[in-house]
Design goal:
This protein has seven helices and no strands. By secondary structure, the chain is mainly α. It has one domain: Mitochondrial carrier domain (Mitochondrial carrier fold). Helix 1 crosses helix 2. The longest helix has about 30 residues.
């Protein structure tokens, strides 16, 4: 939730770029131009639209995927006498955690995308949700319960690829860097975090793009 609060403005710009690019094939949209356009809408508040949905998504999705991943890792490690997991085993645990976690958190993810995308729609097409719980009530009522999982397949694939890039890279890099610099574990873990973030974002971006366009 702390991380989400920090990156929400960047995520808002990313979603707007994805939607604008989809609606205007062949055109390119720079982050600064999109950010300026958002500022004209309603000032700084534009960058935090849907923040309650973003936080709720983290409460549900991130709690699930972290809990599933680390419990799976502990189970596999225990079953093989305490030995560290291989890269393939870490990858398997991360894929399972990402898939299950995203299925549980898909409704919150859909609500977040819709809240973020609303300002980019023509006035007559805007849904004008008042917040997360208003959207959670209106979507099943207006579109059916299963509509909460609209775009569920790319959402799950995106989460699986993101988790694979994040957890597998982080765990592997942490082990190797900690062994290489045992007297500076703080730096080793920081570098492992940076590497995992880059890997996760790069691998998951195509699926994130498809998910955003389907859910909006």
């Amino acid at each position: 939730m702390m991380a989400t609060s920090c990156i929400q403005p960047i995520d808002m710009v990313k979603v707007r770029i994805q939607l604008l690019a989809g609606a205007n094939p062949g055109k390119t949209f720079g982050p600064m131009d999109v950010a300026k356009g958002m500022l004209k809408e309603s000032g700084v508040a534009s960058f935090y639209k849907g923040i309650d949905s973003a936080l709720m998504r983290q409460i549900i999705y991130t709690t699930a995927r972290f809990g599933i991943f680390f419990n799976l890792v502990d189970y596999v490690k225990f079953s093989q006498g305490g030995q560290n997991l291989t890269f393939a085993q870490k990858g398997g645990c991360s894929l399972v955690a990402g898939g299950l976690g995203s299925f549980i958190g898909a409704p919150a993810d859909l609500i977040l995308i819709r809240m973020q995308a609303d300002g980019a729609l023509p006035a007559e097409q805007r849904r004008n949700y008042r917040g997360f719980f208003d959207a959670a009530k209106r979507i099943p009522k207006e579109e059916g319960l299963t509509s909460l999982w609209k775009g569920g397949v790319p959402t799950m694939v995106r989460a699986m690829s993101l988790n694979f890039g994040m957890f597998t890279t982080y765990e592997e890099a942490k082990e190797r860097l900690s062994a290489a610099m045992p007297n500076n574990l703080g730096l080793a873990w920081f570098l492992a975090s940076v590497m995992s973030g880059v890997a996760a974002s790069t691998i998951s971006l195509p699926f994130d793009n498809a998910k955003t366009k389907l859910q909006a």
